[in-house]
Prior knowledge:
The chain is an all-alpha fold and 162 residues long. The protein has 5 helices and no strands. The radius of gyration is 21 Å and the shape is elongated.
Amino acid sequence: MPPAVDLQAVWNFATxxxxxxxxxxxxxxxxxEYDELTIGGLRTFILFALIGALGGWLTLxxxxxxxxxxxxxxxxxxxxxxxxxxxxxxxxxxxxTTELAAIAACLLGAMTTLGYRELAVGLGVxxxxxxxxxxxxxxxxxxxxxxxxxxxxxxxxxxxxx
Length: 162
């Protein structure tokens, strides 16, 4: 007889994957809207959440907190590498939102398997509108800067004509 499937674990992993997908969809939208190079999108964020969920689950099963620490470090390595590459290729467009969202996806994934699934879902749902708000504020700032620049250029043109 095959071993019984732990439905609670399946539900926890599914929740982690959905949280990763939710964050990944928001980051994909941002990436397309601003035509930015970032460390990842939908699939990458699902994987970050899966790494966190696996780390949390193995921590419980093997009773060793070092496994979760190793999972977090493993997820931080590509985040840090992506940030360094972005800093070199687009130094004037630096931001940490995507990188922090990736770390959050990993931690929220861990929370789902460590017994804090409902809290992880709540925090994930709150994180998406926060990302949308940050994107909207960035867009407003960029538009304001462009408008100020255009006004300054017109003023300089008038000065040169006078």
